[in-house]
Design goal:
Layout: E1 9-12, H1 18-29, E2 33-38, H2 41-53, E3 58-62, H3 68-81, E4 87-90, H4 105-133, E5 136-141, H5 154-173, E6 179-186, H6 192-205, H7 211-222, H8 233-244, E7 255-258
Parallel strand pairs: 1-2, 1-4, 2-3, 4-5, 5-6, 6-7
Helix pairs in contact: 1-8, 3-4, 4-5
């Protein structure tokens, strides 16, 4: 299927590793010029170099999106890299594990700024240029815990619920501009961070150190889903890239779950 993305330009925040890296690489394979963003220079340049080595076009924009000035710098660099941005993927965020009595009010506020404020900054900085072009795609990466929060990720889940909510109002705000706004909500994705977390748990639970065996325990005892496996970063990337394409022109204000059926569609 031709996704009609050749020649488009994208900024993928937090694309120096994990899900963001998979999204950046997949967009590049479809002919998109990709601005890789992160806070760590070496990792961002590694991803950009891999894109170029595979025959794609890439640039790097570095900065902390939780800070107004730094976010403005990232937007300026991204817009200048290829003469504009057609696709904004708001993937950057942090994933702290805290319970109700562990996360302080100050930590709630700080995390909201990091996970939601960063999205708002980039939307406000990038979308005016999309309006001028008369075409654009804005995609937020949320999480299944936005719909089904857990007690160990309380403030994180709240920020992801906010990202789903803001996307609904954004789609209405951008009506008749040619820009769509959607959310992708992953379930448990086997990133390096998640593997490290569950490998530590496996040692305490006597599951051994073989990842395939550990995954079987996870999807049986901890996070069961009808697909019977954890997701891969590529699973998320494929959904995002489709939403970014002209083929998804009639999908707007939607929350697309990529979770193996973990969360019922009635939620």
């Amino acid at each position: 299927m031709d996704l009609q993305l050749n020649g488009k330009r994208a900024l993928v925040t937090g694309s120096n590793f994990g899900i963001g890296e998979a999204i950046a690489m997949t967009l590049a394979r479809e002919g998109v010029s990709v601005v890789v963003h992160g806070r760590r220079q070496a990792e961002a340049h590694r991803v950009a170099a891999n894109i170029v080595a595979a025959g794609g076009k890439s640039a790097v924009a570095l900065g902390d999106l939780a800070l107004d000035d730094a976010a403005a710098g990232v937007a300026k660099a991204a817009l200048a890299a290829f003469g504009g941005i057609d696709i904004l993927v708001n993937n950057a965020g942090v994933f702290p594990s805290r319970g109700w009595m562990d996360a302080t009010p100050a930590e709630w506020t700080e995390l909201y700024n990091q996970n939601v404020g960063s999205m708002v900054r980039m939307i406000q900085l990038i979308s005016p240029q999309m309006k001028e072009l008369g075409w654009g795609r804005i995609i937020q990466i949320a999480s299944g815990v936005a719909a089904e929060p857990v007690t160990t990720l309380v403030h994180y889940a709240a920020t992801k619920a906010a990202s789903v909510n803001l996307t609904g109002s954004l789609a209405k705000f951008l009506a008749h501009t040619g820009i769509t706004a959607n959310v992708v909500s992953p379930g448990a994705i086997a990133t390096e961070g998640l593997k490290e977390m569950f490998t530590g748990m496996a040692a305490q639970s006597g599951w051994g150190n073989n990842w395939d065996e550990i995954e079987k325990h996870i999807v049986t005892d901890i996070i069961p889903n009808p697909c019977g496996r954890l997701g891969l970063p590529q699973d998320v990337a494929d959904a995002v890239v489709f939403l970014a394409s002209p083929c998804a022109a009639y999908i707007n204000g939607a929350n697309i779950r990529v979770d193996g059926g973990l969360i019922p569609t009635t939620n």
